[in-house]
Amino acid sequence: MAKTKELSKDTRNKIVDLHQAGKTESAIGKQLGLKKSTVGAIIRKWKTYKTTDNLPRSGAPLKISPRGIKMITRTVSKNPRTTRGDLVNDLQRAGTKVTKPTISNTLCRQGLKSCSARRARLKFAREHLDDPEEDWENVIWSDETKIEHFGKNSTRRVWRTKNAELHPKNTIPTVKHGGGNIMLHGCFSAKGQGRLIRVKEE
Question: pTM for the complete prediction?
C-alpha cells in the first residue's frame, strides 16, 4: 500500500477552524482540496483527543532525538544554505550517526524542503538510459557558463518553509545593472575535450 502524504499542522488546524465555523466535511474538503474521509478523520481525532498533533504510534523509533531535531531545525533556520553533510557532521559530533536521506526526511516533517529543480536532467537520463554506446560517439556536449565578478550565478539550495522564497535569508544579494562577468563556452565528446572559448560581448 502506498504511503499517504501527511498533512501539515497548519492544514489540520485549518480543518478544525472551518469545522467550528459550521462548515460540513464535504465543504471543507472542497475548499482545501482534500478527500472528505481525510477531513472526517482529522475532525474525529480532534473531538476525541482535543488536539491536531500527531499521536504516538507503533513502529521504528526516530533516528534523531527531539533535541537533535531542534538543533538541526535551528541551524537551517539561521543559515538556510546549510548542507545535509554539515548537519550529518553536527549530529555525529553530538553522538548521533545518521545518513543524508534521514536529514532530508526529518526536516521535511518539520515543513522544510531543500529547493532546487533537477527533474529535466533526470528525465533526459532515463529516456536515453538504454541508448547504444556507439550513438554517444556521434554526440558533442557543449555548454556555457557565466562567471560573476560579484557573488555566484549558479543555483543555490536552501532549506525553507512554504511561501518563504523571498525571505532575505533565502535570497542572494545582487548588484544593480550587474557586477560584471565573463562568459565561457566549452565542449567535449567521446574523443576528448574541446577548446574553452571566452565569449566577448559586442
Answer: 0.38
